Amino acid sequence: MDNETVSKNFIEQIIDKDIEEGHCQKVVTRFPPEPNGYLHIGHAKSILLNYGLAKEYNGQFNMRFDDTNPTKEKVEFVDSIKKDVEWLGAKWNGDVLFASNYFPQMYEAAIRLIKKGKAYVDDLSAEEIRQYRGTLTEPGKESPYRERSVEENLKLFEEMKEGKYEDGEKVLRAKIDMASPNINMRDPIIYRVAHMTHHRTGDEWCIYPMYDFAHPIEDAVEGITHSICTLEFEDHRPLYDWVIIETGYKTSPEENPKQIEFAKLYLTNVVTGKRYIKKLVEDGVVDGWDDPRLVSIAALRRRGFTPESIKMFVDLVGVTKAQGSVEYPMLEYCIREDLKLKVKRMMAILDPVKLVIDNYPEDQVEYMDVANNQENPEMGTRKVPFTKELYIEREDFMEEPPKKYFRMFPGNEVRLMNAYYVTCTGVDKDENGNINCIHCTYDPETKGGNFAGRKVKGTIHWVSASRGINAEVRLYDNIVDEEKGVYNEDGSMNINPNSLTILKNCVLEPELANARPEDRFQFVRNGYFCVDNKDSKGNVLVFNRIVSLKSSFKLQK
Prior knowledge:
single chain, seven-stranded mixed sheet
């Protein structure tokens, strides 16, 4: 048991203490995204952390949309977020919840604050409120409207609700302390007028609660015990507790709901900011929020990452309060580890050149036994057609090779993987001197490629020219110029112009004709690939390279 305690992260230790002291009978967590964009890899950490804690303590995990800002919210984002959370394997309790479900409770909570003398209607403009707020070194200045009577505040707030005022004309502010060293406690705005149509409540409301007021009430109404968020909200925790205590949902900061902050997940040299991704989409640099070069969850899924690989990545990163960044190769390491024993290893020729075996029977087709995954014998074998004319990778032949080049060149014998030994006898060239066909002969005695009579140093993969299928293959590199970093001082981005290479005339072994969107494979020597879930349709096959086979990342033991 001692070892188990030591290995627990600081959030688990807080929860254990709460249970021990009787503050918590059942652990209830939540994931509360705003429906104003697509989720990215950082959100995946929050989803898996909140869901994982609820599961670990046999508790409850809520899925709730923080839809308090109708200016930026769309049903499209609601649907995409639900899809992402489900794909990651996080199962929420009951129905999806919405902050807008609690607008009546929030309004009543604001009324309670006004009646207690803890909130007032302010007529200052947004700019004046900023000026009155003070700085980190100077206290704020009280609004001339701060001492309005309870009766006047109730009347004005009701008129705000009835739509008698224009946007920005009046706000409701919490009455806390304009001299507080914590700027968040200097009479924050808790309601504003916004004549906007809400995606769920329509035109029922023209006043909307601010996030710092709404969020704690949502947690309290749902019975959330541990409200887990990222470190930038640490300075907001006193306000979180103030709202819940003053509106009557708890009596002390020690009680639940309790806000706990952890370090955000920062991935090096990636674009996660919504406005930056929006610009990439609008400028046509990427083909949408799910472009495989991005790290939105939808993009990672389309690229070919698995929920298991993302969970492994999140587990490796861990849960701490220390802010830091993580190298992208760690994420690549996780997908390699997840797929290496799971997927078939197929032969695919990305840059094909024809190979003709001159002494092989013209119309003969042999079916070679090929292991589906040499590291996992339980995956069995498959039959791959072998014919007189094949395709090999152009880079597997050199007319004038350097020393220690063991692949195909004139006079050299190599192994065709799982097939025969062949010896190159010559080449055909076009009028520009480009090689368009390589000729060779085979030794029938060497079938299977494991001939004991003599050894060859080079092994190359191949696909039948007559039986292979055509496909488009997309190779990805970082969308960011890694040497320069993501952003310039003026806010512009350093984009890598070579982040996408499209190969149109690839030849794949025929079994891949049955591949479906999001099916994953290893292409021998070329990396791990996934069928694109957007552009692969009918007879048009498109494969995305998820990751190459070699990694620069080493896991520290």
